[in-house]
Each structure stands twice: as C-alpha cells, then as structure tokens.
Specification:
The complex is a heterodimer of chains A (176) and B (537).
Chain A (H helix, E strand, L loop, with lengths): L1 H37 L6 E2 L2 H5 L9 E9 L5 E5 L3 E4 L4 E10 L5 E10 L7 E6 L5 E3 L4 E10 L9 E10 L5
Parallel strand pairs in A: 1-7, 2-10
Antiparallel strand pairs in A: 2-4, 3-5, 5-9, 6-8, 6-10, 7-9
Chain B lengths: L25 H5 L3 H29 L10 H36 L7 H20 L26 H28 L12 H32 L13 H18 L2 H15 L6 H14 L15 H13 L1 H15 L8 H24 L1 H7 L3 H31 L5 H27 L14 H30 L42
Helix pairs in contact in B: 2-3, 2-4, 2-16, 3-4, 3-5, 3-14, 4-5, 5-6, 6-7, 6-8, 6-9, 8-11, 8-12, 8-14, 9-11, 11-12, 12-14, 12-15, 14-15, 15-16
The chains are: A alpha+beta (176), B mainly alpha (537).
Chain lengths: 176, 537
C-alpha cells in the first residue's frame, strides 16, 4: 500500500515533468503568436492587395522608410537595396526592389528574413508582396531584382516618422 | 543500535536485522541507504567544488593584469562557461540534494527515502554526466565557450563536441528530476503521525518547494537544449533566422527555466539558515508560517520574472515595466525572510560556533547580493549594468557567500551527526574569517569595475580597470586556497576528534538530534513519537 502511494506521487510528478518538457516546445508557437500580435522582434504584417487598396491615404504625413541589406556569413551574395530610402504617405501602396547577385559559380537557394525597427512600427508595416515570402533560387553567378510592395497603416503612432526595413539574406538551410 | 526493534517486520524479516553497510567498495555502488547516498553526493560536490574553483583561479589569474597572460581567449571563454556549469550543476545542486538525502528522512522521522533504488540511480548518473562534460575540454573542438546560458547562434558555431555537452546536460537534468521526485514522494508519504506539513522543519519545506521548481523547470531546459541539438545536427530552425527561427526565443525559453533555477540554488540555503539560527540563538524560528508563505511566494514569482535577464533585447515598454515591477516584488518575501532571521536572533542567547558564523555571514552578504539584484531590476539602470562585472558581482554575492556559505554552515552544523566527532572549532573559526575576508576582497571590487563599464566574459580589459582586478585576483587566490583548510577540517573530523553527543548543540531541536551521533545506519524504522520536544516549532 505504501509502495502504491509512492508510485502515485512519483507518477504525478513524472507527468508534470513530461508536461513541462512539452510546454518548452509549446513556447515555440506561443512565441510566434505573441510576436505576431504585438509586432515584437520587428515581425511585419501581410495584407492582401484588396485590403491595401481600401485604406484611406493620410495626405498630411510623410514617413521616411529606409532600406537596409545584410548578408549572413553562410552565404556569398552581393545584396543591396536599389533605392536607400523613400518618403511615403501612410495608406498608399509603394513598391521597392532589392538587387542580389550570386557570387558563386554554383546554383544556390537563398532566403531573406525581414525585420522592422522600431518594433513599435512593425504591426503597422504591412506587405502585399515580398521576395522574403518565398525561397529565391539563383543560377550560378546570376543576378536578380527582387520586389516588395508595402503599405503603412495610417493608424501608425504619430511619434514615428522614420522606419527602417532590414533584410538579412541567408543561404537556405536545407542545402548546407 | 537505533530503533529497529523489528516488531513490524513480517515481510521484511532479516532485511532489517540491525545490519550495517555492506563491506567493501561495492557498498557505495549498490547502496540504497539515504545516508550513504547523501555522503556520496556531498563528496562528489566537494570534488567538483575544487574543479570549478580551479577554473575560477585560471580566470582570475588571466584577469590579474590587462593583456593576455596565460591562456588563449578561446580557452578563457570555455573556462568561464565550464566554471558556471560545474558550480551550478556539479556543486550547489548535488550538495543540496546530498543534504536532502541525509537530513530529510531524519528530520521528518522516516526510515529512508521513498524510492531508494531511484535514489541510487540519481546519484550515479552524475559522475558520468560530468565526466562527459569535462571531457569536451580535451576534444579537438574544445569545451563549450559561449557562456553557460548557451545562447544561439554563438553556441551553434561550436564543434562536434557540442553533442557531448547536450548529452551531459540531459543526464544532469534526469538526475535532478529523479532526485526531486524522490524528495516529494518522501515528504508527502513518509511523515509519521503528528508531523503535519505546517510542523515540518524549514529545511524540509524549502526543499519540497525546490523539488517542485526542479520538476517544473528542468524539463523546459531539456527541451531548449534539445532544440539546440536538432538545430545543430538535424537541420531544424528553431533558433536559426535563416529557416524562420528566432535566437531571442531561446533566451525566453532558457530564462523561463533559468530564473526558477537561481531560486533552486538558494531556497534550500534559506532552509539551512532557518535551521541553524534558531539553534544558536536558542529561540524558535520567528514567524514560521510567514517563512513558509514567503518561500512559496518566491517560488511562484520566479516563474513570471524571467525577462529581466533580457531588458536589452528590445522589449516593448509595457513588458519592461511588468518584468521590472514583478522582479522588485520578489524583494518583499525575501525581505520577510531576512527580517525573520534577524528577529530570531533578537534577544536570543546567541553563541557563535562556526555554523552560526557562516549563517550570519550568509544573512549579511546574501542581503548585499540581494540589494545589487534590486538595482539590476531597474530597467533603465540595467541597460547600463547589463553584461558588466556588476552583474558578476551580484550573482557571486548571492551564490558564494550565499549558497556556498549555507553549504559550509550545513556541513559544520551536521557533521558531528554524520561522523560522531566534533570538528576542530578553532580551525572552523579560522576558516570562516579567512574566507569572509577574502571573499569580499574578491567580489566587492567587481561592483566598482562593473559600474565603470568593464564587460564580462572577456579575457582582456582597458587599463583603468587594472587595479581593482588585481585586488580581486588576490582575493580569489586567498579564498581558493583557504578552502583547503575546509577539506582538512572535514577529513580530520571524519578520522576522529572529540566525541559528539546525540544532541550535539545545546539549543538544537528536531528529530535528527534525538538519534545517536554518528547517526545509526538505519534510523526511525519505527515511527518516532512526535511531540513538543521533538518539533522545531
């Protein structure tokens, strides 16, 4: 009887331990959801073109959008924005392009990850189309102009007049 | 010997016949006796204390002067990393588990731990885990060098010995979780009638709460390091931005474990000090109930403050405020504890034997570390203090003259019960005073260089930090070598000395002092009678 009582307590504690191991993994999707809701870590939003076109343009504000490009040490690319910064009106759809060249004489696949700073601006920075949504395939030594279209939500806080959009280009992990 | 009158021994007949330990070395390998396993844990952590201490001396030797003196930066980095891993997982945690094994059954009047075979496993995993961990230092790709917090992406750049590090961490975790399950089962199921939860000695209470913290958080850590392992070797992308992961997420998962972990390293120390101070103040513990609730509050709060380690990662203002205030809130229950210890001493008939000296040293110096922790909790200030030597000073004040002092206090307090001999009181006092002087020479100057901006985990520094670093290095060698005196006192006490009585200390209360010294191999095989005189409150 005593042994059973021990097994019961040990079993419950073991269940707690296994549950917490699972909780550790559950924190991964939870983290993504929280980042998406709050715009933490500069995760940008995505909207459809129809939604973007339906937004009213705020003619009175001008926000400077800066474009930044980085290449992760795992990749060999020339990677830069074609225009360094533009002035935009909230609520209007804009298009920008990034230039990329594969510096290797073999075919490679790349992936860009975006980040918006300040992070308070991230929830209002929405893209309808972006080269970061998909993997980018490059033939040996080839070049590409990669587009993105974005719209800044007119509800963006008034103290923000400058937004930096930064992309880091990685070699896609599947082919390392 | 002991209380084994065998009136109840139907099924267990013969097994309980007043036998002592099995002869020879195999006694230690196959033992399921809580006292033997406690002893193994304690010797193991003493050995690891010197290995981790040796690493600390390498670090301090290198930092004794600006420039690169003795070791190359990569090795320096693996020393800071290994020093932390060894001291946390190899010294403080196993030493507390060792004390739990020795003392919890004797304090609550149980014959042994609830799951003795599991107990044997819990211990014997540890030497293997640490052999694997330490062996990475001798591998081609070197030991872990990215800090004990194992932040990606840096840690993922480590060579293939990374797999050994993760494997060893998993083993340590399994050992801790098994040990904790055992402690919870023992405390819940093996108390004799009369030993109600609210009559348990404080050390038992703090360990019960610590065990829950361990079972709840170690698996989260195991999950995090498993993600690192799959990221490194199996092409997952939990923390690799290239595949859509996020390195900052690791910090959240890690500190969700890491912050409760720092309370795992201190709550049993609170229990030890709460046992020792009443004995030498010859008064019962002041505010027992509030002590229990304060411990539970600290444990609860430890789960909601983790991001105060991450104020510089760019959190929104609301999160920074939340984590700042919740962190500051922890100083309330901790303040209750310090108040209760001081009030226990107030108008007590105090005497200052070595355990009491270490306990009082704990209260004073732990409070210094607590106050610098409060400074670090202030978000705007933390952005200045982050990753400087001020942080190093803070956590070494709570861990060395905090956790380690409590372990030394516990050793002096209970070693007469373990060995049957009194330790050398004169040498014990020498040990305390030399250690206390040098530990302050070692860690106090780190506050100054930290506030002046010296970064941690770097083998070199600007010239203006040179003087205080030299002072700290003197303190480090003084403190390190004075621990040889500790070993000498322990060995001398094990070998012989003035015979200890069963009660040992004049003001001692509690069941462990009702048995002979040394404690018989089997104690409380029939449940003891619990009454006013055998309870600690």
């Amino acid at each position: 009887m005593v042994a059973n009582a021990h097994k019961l307590v040990a079993g419950k504690m073991l269940l707690l331990a296994v549950g917490m191991f699972g909780f550790g993994y559950l924190m991964v999707p939870m983290y993504d959801i929280i980042c998406e809701i709050t715009g933490l870590n500069g995760k940008t939003g995505r909207v459809s073109i129809a939604e973007a076109n339906s937004q009213a343009v705020d003619e009175d504000r001008l926000i400077t959008v800066e474009f930044v490009a980085n290449v992760n040490s795992s990749g060999a690319w020339e990677f830069r924005p074609n225009v360094k910064e533009i002035q935009v009106k909230p609520g209007e759809l804009y298009k920008a392009t990034y230039f990329a060249q594969n510096l290797l004489s073999v075919d490679v696949v790349g992936q860009a990850t975006p980040s918006v700073s300040p992070s308070a601006a991230a929830p209002y920075f929405n893209k309808t189309e972006c080269f970061c949504f998909t993997r980018q395939e490059f033939e040996a030594n080839s070049t590409k102009d990669m587009p993105l279209t974005f719209i800044i939500d007119p509800k963006i806080p008034h103290n923000i007049d400058r937004v930096t959009l930064s992309y880091t280009f990685f070699k896609s992990p599947e082919q390392s | 010997m002991s209380y084994s009158d065998n009136t109840h021994g139907e099924a267990h007949h013969g097994e309980h016949d007043d036998h002592g330990p099995a002869p020879g070395l195999m006694r230690w390998v196959t033992t399921t006796n809580h006292k033997d396993i406690g002893t193994l844990y304690l010797w193991f952590s003493l050995l690891m204390f010197f290995i981790g201490g040796g690493m600390a001396l390498i670090i301090r030797a290198e930092l004794g002067a600006p420039g690169i003196q003795f070791v190359d930066p990569m090795f320096f980095n693996s020393m800071t990393t290994m020093h932390a891993i060894v001291m946390i997982f190899g010294v403080v945690m196993p030493a507390f588990v060792g004390l739990a094994n020795w003392m919890i059954p004797m304090m609550i009047g149980a014959p042994d731990m609830a799951l003795p075979r599991l107990n044997n496993w819990s211990f014997w995993i540890m030497p293997f885990a640490f052999t694997i961990m330490l062996s990475t230092l001798f591998m081609d790709s070197g030991g872990p060098a990215g800090g004990w917090t194992l932040y990606p992406p840096l840690v993922l750049q480590m060579g293939d010995s990374f797999a050994f590090v993760i494997f060893a961490i998993h083993f340590m975790g399994i050992s801790s979780v098994m040990g904790s399950i055992n402690i919870v089962a023992t405390i819940f199921n093996m108390r004799p009638p009369g030993m109600t939860l609210m009559h348990m000695p404080m050390f038992v209470w703090t360990w019960l709460i610590t065990a829950f913290l361990l079972v709840a958080t170690i698996p989260v850590f195991a999950g995090a390091v498993t993600m690192l392992l799959t990221d490194r070797f199996f092409d997952t992308s939990f923390f690799s931005a290239a595949g859509g992961g996020d390195p900052v997420m690791f910090q959240h998962i890690f500190w969700f474990f890491g912050h409760p972990e720092v309370y795992i390293l201190i709550l049993p120390a609170f229990g030890i000090v709460s046992s020792i101070i009443p004995t030498f103040a010859r008064k019962p513990l002041f505010g027992y109930d509030s002590m229990v609730y304060a411990t539970a509050s600290i444990a609860f709060l430890s789960f909601i403050v983790w991001a105060h380690h991450m104020f510089t990662t760019g959190m929104p203002l609301a999160a920074e405020l939340f984590f700042m205030f919740s962190t500051m809130m922890i100083s309330v229950p901790t303040g209750v504890k310090v108040f209760n210890w001081v009030s226990t001493m107030w108008r007590g008939s105090m005497s200052f034997e070595t355990p009491m000296l270490f306990a009082i040293g704990f209260v004073i110096m732990f409070t210094i570390g607590g106050l610098s922790g409060l400074m670090l909790a202030i978000t705007p200030a933390d952005i200045q203090y982050h990753d400087t030597y001020f942080v190093v000073a803070h956590f070494h004040y709570v861990l060395v003259p905090g956790a380690i002092y409590s372990l030394m206090a516990a050793t002096y307090y209970w070693i007469p019960k373990w060995t049957g001999n009194m330790y050398d009181e004169t040498l014990g006092k020498w040990h305390f005073w030399i250690s206390t002087i040098f530990v302050n020479v070692l860690f106090f100057p780190m506050h100054f260089v930290g506030l002046a901006g010296m970064p941690r985990r770097i083998p070199d520094y600007s010239l203006q930090f040179a003087d205080w670093n030299f002072v700290a290095t003197i303190g480090a060698f003084g403190f390190g070598f004075s621990q040889l005196l500790f070993v000498y006192i322990i060995v001398k006490c094990v070998k012989g000395g003035k015979k200890a009585t069963g009660e040992v200390w004049e003001g001692a209360r509690g069941l462990e002092w009702t048995v002979d010294s040394p404690a018989p191999y089997h104690t409380f095989e029939t449940a003891p009678v619990i009454n006013e005189s055998t309870l600690t409150r």
